[in-house]
């Protein structure tokens, strides 16, 4: 099954890094093909349903091949790196680099699954397990719980090893084997309950590539016995090659992947919808189609705010603190919330209640390498400006570093999205699920604007506010937006508002 | 004898008892300097400065430079073992591993105080204690690789295999210590557990029995601040050491990251137990710097600043500083220590990878010490069942 090319190529398969995990995402590679690595050198960061962990290299040698790109979700047991290992004479047979092996059958059903209709409120619990778990359930992420069951496939078993010299090589190579009898009904229908049989017979069937579902048991109460399996094989004209357990899987994989993606077009990349993307999508859909959105726009001359910023930057109190238009907008929003509290509330469909929050837990949408996160600043209304500025700075930094503590990702009451950093003026933001309002802050532009009866070049910004019309009427939303505008137009107006 | 002890125990009411009082042999050490006091005993501070201590200095008077170096080497080695085992888990060679990172001083300091005939009952994190007891490192990994139900014969190193049930080992230790009393021996049972375990009924029951029988048992609690994801303050509104006097057990709080202080307080507790002074409770205040196990991600529940604070109290770093200030940390020495640690780690890896997998019928071993006909029958059935797998390929490929 394997050729005897130069030995010492070792394959590293993704281990179960927690207890009972079925897959993990490769977040980042720390090595490239051709790199020399030492034993236990960190080669990758891997995110499981439980933790982001560092993978230490199991071998000293050269990285021959990285089988999976960063960002890929890999099944436990699938090869991820091949090493060329110095020393260790001729123990390991060569690995034939080939198509990623039988990972397809188990993932297929997962991918076809419908998007979760009930996304959790915490829009940023960023694991697959979180995505798939019902919101009411506590996510089992600690010792002894194991990951949420996501797969319909059977658990993958690690091949048994007897000694060092013959490690993973005992695992089957991924050469597709022609099925002797294509399993009937292998298409989209959910698999029927597995017919009754005994473990030895199941193993025989698997070895011979016979799907038990296609057999009728002749044993007591329909039990499938050895003879049923063997007679199913008997009809086949093909010779019986040395089969192993991957045979059935491979054949299913082949037929499954052939149908939906038949005739792949050049220039088209198909990426499975998973992880953060899947979760974000579900949250957005839920928000957009449960909360009737109203969006209002307000374009204002923020020159006085920009002047205020210049003053703050020069002041000793703000030394070393990053103050930006967002800082002032955040403060203005907190002040405006105090005057228009309905925007800081939540619609509790189940309890048939409107939840009004005393504190402003201010969410800030952050684009991170792993996707959209909305960490929030707790009780933002109570923070003096300098602390608010610092919180904003550290919040996004922490989020980008992937280190936001879970508590900061839940419990937000209202959000800001800063689209101005991308040079955008306005948009219709979609509410963070469970919140009643979201403010998009546009770019500050130098524009000709009416100023003291003449046209002058002024700093102008557009604010876009979406609110949940179930909770917030046009009047309240408009007043809220106007209040923010008033402050940004002339920060001194705060004196009249608090 | 046992009855006497029980009666004597009942004489003490109110206030922590003075060890040695009420026992025939009054040859014990002076009363504990810290009877449940909150300030931990410390001999080496976080900056590696040795502080004199009127009570505990005498207990470690024999620890000279050479002995300090040995303690340092022990700690480097066990940290290396821990790192290697963690890597092996990440590489899929172990199913799970409970790291001890940060708790080296508590375990080495106490472990090195023990006599060969003392008996240890530990939880699953006391791999450094097992190292002190002379465990075969391969045996240490067997359970975590899923190759055996337990790693070693407890009587070969006088240490029971790790207890996974939280706190249950304290009962085993107390029972063993009651046995020592019956034998009239002067060995001591030492049990290790964490701050979370003190909430378990077992631990409290063990303390009641230990006090009642004045059993020679040392309760060594490593307060590593986290019971998986629950901070210690949630379960202990006062220092844990303060609970023991309520059971009539003298207690001491020690800086668990100070190997010398841990050695000193453990020696004191052992001496008390050997001389008929009964149990002692030690709370070693330390910190679990890693995850609860390799399947846990502490970043999800604890503040990175806290980790930083404790990193500045690292048990190895402070001893290195002390050795350096004594002129004992030359390059030759540190290189030799590193080489030792690396060699041990390489052995550990080799032992792990070359561990033969158990046979299915191994499950029948160690059930009874003598032959058992019912079990033999079950084994026979099972073997015939296993054989039925083997028939498959031949028939299939006729």
Helicity of chain B, as a percent range: 40-55%
Helix and strand content put the structural class of chain B at: alpha/beta
Order of helices and strands of chain B: HHHEHHHHEHEEEHHEHEHHHH
Which range does the strand content of chain B fall in? 5-15%
**What proportion of the residues of chain A form beta strands (DSSP E)?**
15-25%
CATH homologous superfamily designation of the largest domain in chain B: Thiamin diphosphate (ThDP)-binding fold, Pyr/PP domains
Number of strands of chain B: 7
Largest sheet of chain B: 5 strands, parallel
Distance between the termini of chain B: 76 Å
Keywords (chain B): Oxidoreductase, Pyruvate, Thiamine pyrophosphate
GO molecular function, one term (chain B): magnesium ion binding
Cofactor (chain B): thiamine diphosphate
Domain Dehydrogenase E1 component (chain B): 74-358
Question: What features would you describe in this structure?
Answer:
The complex is a heterodimer of chains A (498) and B (398). Among the domains of chain A are: 1-101, Beta Barrel (OB fold (Dihydrolipoamide Acetyltransferase, E2P)); 291-496, Chloramphenicol acetyltransferase-like domain (Chloramphenicol Acetyltransferase, 2-Layer Sandwich). In chain A, strands 9, 12, 15, 16, 17, 18 and 19 form a seven-stranded mixed β-sheet that branches. Chain A has a four-stranded antiparallel β-sheet with strand order 1-8-6-3, with no helix packed on it. In chain A, strands 5-4-2-7 form a four-stranded antiparallel β-sheet, with no helix packed on it. Chain A is built from ten helices and 19 strands. The relative contact order of chain A is 0.10. Mean pLDDT of chain A is 76; it is low at 1-5, 89-138, 161-188 and 236-262. In chain A, helix 3 (199-208) packs parallel to helix 4. Chain A has 498 residues and is α+β, with helices and mostly antiparallel strands. Chain B has two domains: 2-353, Thiamin diphosphate (ThDP)-binding fold, Pyr/PP domains (Rossmann fold, 3-Layer(aba) Sandwich); 371-396. In chain B, the strands form two sheets. In chain B, strands 1-2-3-7-6 form a five-stranded parallel β-sheet, sandwiched between helices. In chain B, strands 4-5 form a two-stranded antiparallel ribbon. Chain B is globular. In chain B, helix 2 (65-90) packs across helix 4 (127-133), helix 3 (104-111) runs parallel beside helix 11 and helix 5 crosses helix 14. Classes of the chains: A alpha+beta (498), B alpha/beta (398).
């Amino acid at each position: 099954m394997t050729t005897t090319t130069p030995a010492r190529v070792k394959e590293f398969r993704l281990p179960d890094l927690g207890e009972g995990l079925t897959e993990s995402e490769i977040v980042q590679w720390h090595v490239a093909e051709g790199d020399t690595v030492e034993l236990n050198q960190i080669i990758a960061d891997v995110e499981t349903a439980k933790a982001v962990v560092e993978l230490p290299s199991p071998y000293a040698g050269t990285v021959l091949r990285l089988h999976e790109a960063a960002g890929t979700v890999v099944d436990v047991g699938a090869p991820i790196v091949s090493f060329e290992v110095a020393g260790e004479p001729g123990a390991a047979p060569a690995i034939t680099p080939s198509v990623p092996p039988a990972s397809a059958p188990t993932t297929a059903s997962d991918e076809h699954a419908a998007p979760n209709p009930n996304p959790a409120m915490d829009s940023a619990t960023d694991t697959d397990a979180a995505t798939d778990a019902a919101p009411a359930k506590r996510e089992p992420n600690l010792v002894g719980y194991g990951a949420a069951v996501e797969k319909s496939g059977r658990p993958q078993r690690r091949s048994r090893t007897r000694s060092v010299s013959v490690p993973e090589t005992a695992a089957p190579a991924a050469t597709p084997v022609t099925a002797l009898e294509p399993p009937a009904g292998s298409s989209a229908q959910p698999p029927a309950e597995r017919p009754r049989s005994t473990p030895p017979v199941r193993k025989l069937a698997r070895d011979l590539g016979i799907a038990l579902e296609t057999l009728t048991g002749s044993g007591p109460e329909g039990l499938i016995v050895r003879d049923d399996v063997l007679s199913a094989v008997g009809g086949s004209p093909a010779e019986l090659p040395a089969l192993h357990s991957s045979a059935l899987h491979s054949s299913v994989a082949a037929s499954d992947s052939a149908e939906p993606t038949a005739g792949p077009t050049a220039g088209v990349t198909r990426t499975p919808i998973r992880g953060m993307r899947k979760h974000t999508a579900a949250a957005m859909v839920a928000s957009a189609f449960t909360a009737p959105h109203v969006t209002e726009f307000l374009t204002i001359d923020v020159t006085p705010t920009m002047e205020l910023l210049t003053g703050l930057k020069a002041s000793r109190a703000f030394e070393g603190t990053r103050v930006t238009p967002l800082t002032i907008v955040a403060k203005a929003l907190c002040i405006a919330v105090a005057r228009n509290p309905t925007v800081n509330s939540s619609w509790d469909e189940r309890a048939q209640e409107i939840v009004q929050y005393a504190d402003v837990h201010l969410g800030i949408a952050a684009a991170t390498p792993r996707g959209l996160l909305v960490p929030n600043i707790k009780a933002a209304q109570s923070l003096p400006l300098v602390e608010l500025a610092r919180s904003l700075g550290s919040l996004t930094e922490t989020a980008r570093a992937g280190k936001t503590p879970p508590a900061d990702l839940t419990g937000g009451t209202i959000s800001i999205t800063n689209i101005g950093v991308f040079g955008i003026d306005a948009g219709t933001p979609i509410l963070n699920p469970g919140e009643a309002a979201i403010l998009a802050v546009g770019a500050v532009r130098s524009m000709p604007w009416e100023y003291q009866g003449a046209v002058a070049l002024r700093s102008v910004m557009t604010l876009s506010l979406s609110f949940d019309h179930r909770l917030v009427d046009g009047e309240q939303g408009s007043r809220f937006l106007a209040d923010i505008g008033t402050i940004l137009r002339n920060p001194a107006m705060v004196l009249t508002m608090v | 004898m046992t009855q006497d002890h029980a009666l004597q125990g009942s004489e003490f009411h109110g206030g922590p008892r003075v060890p040695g009082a009420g026992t025939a042999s009054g040859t014990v050490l002076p009363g504990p300097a810290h009877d449940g006091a909150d300030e931990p005993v410390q001999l080496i501070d976080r900056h590696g400065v040795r502080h004199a201590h009127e009570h505990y200095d005498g207990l470690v008077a024999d620890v000279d430079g050479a002995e300090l170096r040995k303690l340092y080497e022990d700690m480097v080695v066990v940290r290396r073992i821990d790192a290697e085992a963690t890597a092996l888990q990440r590489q899929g060679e172990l199913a799970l591993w409970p790291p001890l990172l940060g708790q080296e001083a508590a375990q080495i300091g106490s472990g090195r105080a023990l006599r060969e005939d003392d008996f240890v009952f530990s939880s699953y994190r006391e791999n450094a204690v097992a190292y002190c007891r002379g465990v075969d490192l391969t045996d240490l990994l067997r359970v975590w690789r899923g190759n055996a139900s337990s790693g070693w014969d407890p009587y070969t190193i006088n240490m029971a295999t790790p207890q996974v049930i939280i706190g249950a080992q304290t009962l085993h230790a107390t029972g063993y210590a009651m046995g020592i009393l019956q034998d009239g021996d002067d060995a001591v049972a030492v049990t290790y557990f964490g701050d979370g375990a003190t909430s378990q009924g077992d631990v409290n029951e063990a303390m009641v029995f230990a006090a009642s029988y004045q059993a020679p048992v040392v309760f060594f609690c490593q307060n590593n601040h986290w019971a998986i994801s629950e901070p210690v303050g949630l379960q202990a509104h006062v220092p844990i050491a303060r609970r023991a006097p309520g059971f009539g057990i003298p207690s001491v709080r020690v800086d668990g990251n100070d190997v010398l202080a841990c050695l000193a307080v453990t020696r004191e507790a052992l001496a008390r137990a050997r001389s008929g002074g009964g149990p002692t409770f030690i709370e070693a205040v330390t910190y679990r710097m890693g995850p609860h196990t390799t399947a846990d991600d502490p970043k999800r529940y604890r503040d990175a600043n806290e980790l930083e604070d404790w990193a500045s109290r690292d048990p190895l770093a402070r001893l290195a500083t002390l050795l350096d200030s004594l002129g004992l940390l030359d390059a030759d020495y540190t290189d030799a220590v590193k080489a030792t640690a690396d060699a041990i780690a390489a052995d550990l890896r080799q032992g792990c990878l070359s561990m033969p997998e158990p046979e299915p019928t191994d499950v029948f071993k160690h059930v009874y010490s003598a032959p058992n006909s019912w079990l033999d029958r079950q084994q026979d059935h099972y073997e015939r069942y296993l054989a039925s797998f083997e028939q498959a390929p031949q028939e299939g490929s006729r």
